[in-house]
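A reminder from the course coordinator: this example appears on the midterm review sheet, so study it carefully.

Given structure:
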């Protein structure tokens, strides 16, 4: 049995695990705000996401050879301290380079925190399996809720609030390493490597590679292209954690191989739906993301349980599974970034023609059409340099707020261009769907547990 003090500390540790996993995507909805605040390019703000995931991936695999020489308490203390410092530094960042540096500090702390939290939770809750279950649940919830949480904080306060709320969570979790139940945790002894763990980790890498489409691409589409406000974007992507939570009772009743296979197919189905969006629609986007959330809720708990060995090697197995998850994220982003850039560039000419045609066909004075067309040309050229063009500005500068014809021309132009740019995401969504489908390969090798 566990006392009330230890349970409260376990809640704090579980919250820090959820936040560390959420950090993989928590700033996506704040990217346009960061872009404006730091006067940078889309590639620049993209590093705010990439740097964290890359450092977690590298640090986790670098730590694996040393897990049997390290003490759980020290690893976790250092991780939580670095994560707290990194969060404070991110919130206080004065320029983009400083933010990226502190995101790297966060990533290093996150890798250590996530690895050490697994045995820590087992010690606090009085059972390794119980601690692993809480760790797995927190990791799934954190990964799913990240974009929505970041959007709400950005809208209600400021992008800095994303990091301000993280610091006290990690700081309180730091106190758990001084609990008396943790003092008995010894260094890990050599344990046989399990084939099932390698299979499950490969599955997690593919699942999280697929989730790049749901957690990153969809959010970029909603916020950057469709220009929805962060709170609206948060409501749309909240379909992922809601669906993942609702499907949990079903997941527990399904055979393990069937749960993972069904989850992979659902994630792929949702991503294909996003690739083939028939129109710009918040509702259709939310439905497709909910399907992805159902897949997440089915596949990840089973794969997480198989990837860890909480009884014999919690620190090592936790470190390895963290590394594999972020390997999937980093690999998918690395493949998608050039593909999306190519498709956006390829659609630049059609978008320009569609924009000019929309302006010339609009019911506005000729004295406005030519200047607006010239201003649009300049904005498209700015977009080639990595800037986000404000295509409504030429219309607003000429009184669209008071002229109904200008306002209609502006809205028609923006809808036309959003439709063209939305198609540029098609192949990137399909690539992430392929990642999800690849999960079927390790799923076939999963073994059913005796009843």
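Designed residues:
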């Amino acid at each position: 049995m566990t006392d009330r003090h230890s349970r409260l500390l376990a809640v704090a540790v579980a919250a820090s695990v959820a936040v560390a996993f959420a950090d993989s995507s928590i700033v996506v909805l704040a990217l346009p705000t960061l872009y404006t605040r730091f006067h940078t390019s889309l590639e620049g703000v993209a590093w705010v996401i990439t740097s964290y995931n890359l450092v977690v991936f590298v640090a986790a695999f670098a730590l694996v050879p040393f897990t049997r020489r390290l003490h759980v308490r020290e690893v976790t203390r250092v991780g939580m301290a670095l994560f707290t410092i990194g969060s404070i530094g991110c919130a206080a960042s004065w320029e983009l380079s400083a933010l990226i540096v502190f995101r790297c500090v966060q990533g290093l702390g996150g890798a250590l925190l996530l690895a050490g939290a697994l045995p820590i939770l087992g010690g606090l809750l009085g059972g390794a399996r119980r601690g692993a279950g809480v760790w797995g649940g927190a990791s799934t919830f954190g990964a799913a809720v990240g974009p929505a949480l970041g959007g709400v904080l950005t809208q209600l306060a400021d992008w800095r609030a994303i990091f301000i709320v993280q610091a006290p969570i990690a700081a309180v979790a730091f106190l758990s390493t001084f609990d008396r139940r943790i003092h008995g945790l010894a260094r890990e002894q050599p344990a046989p490597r399990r084939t099932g763990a390698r299979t499950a980790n490969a599955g997690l890498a593919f699942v999280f590679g697929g989730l790049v489409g749901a957690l990153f691409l969809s959010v970029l589409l909603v916020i950057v292209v469709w220009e929805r406000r962060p709170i609206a974007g948060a409501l749309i992507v909240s379909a992922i954690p809601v669906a993942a939570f609702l499907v949990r009772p079903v997941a527990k009743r399904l055979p393990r191989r069937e749960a993972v296979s069904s989850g992979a197919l659902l994630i792929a189905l949702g991503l294909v739906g996003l690739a083939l969006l028939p129109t710009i629609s918040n509702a259709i986007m939310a439905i497709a993301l909910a399907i992805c959330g159902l897949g997440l809720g089915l596949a990840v708990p089973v794969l997480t349980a198989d990837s860890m060995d909480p009884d014999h090697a919690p620190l090592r197995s936790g470190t390895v599974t963290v590394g594999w998850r972020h390997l999937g994220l980093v690999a998918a982003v690395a493949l998608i970034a050039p593909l999306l850039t190519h498709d956006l560039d390829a659609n630049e000419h059609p978008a320009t023609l569609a924009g000019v045609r929309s302006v010339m066909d609009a019911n506005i004075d000729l004295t406005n059409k030519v200047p607006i067309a010239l201003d649009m040309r300049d904005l498209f050229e700015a977009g080639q340099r990595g800037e986000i063009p404000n295509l409504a500005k030429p219309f607003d500068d000429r009184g669209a707020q008071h002229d109904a014809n200008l306002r209609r021309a502006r809205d028609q132009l923006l809808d036309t261009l959003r439709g063209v740019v939305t198609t540029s995401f098609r192949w990137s969504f399909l690539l992430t769907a392929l990642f999800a489908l690849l999960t079927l390969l390790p799923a076939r090798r999963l073994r059913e547990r005796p009843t």
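The two ends are 26 Å apart (CA to CA). The chain has two domains: 4-345+426-443, 348-423.
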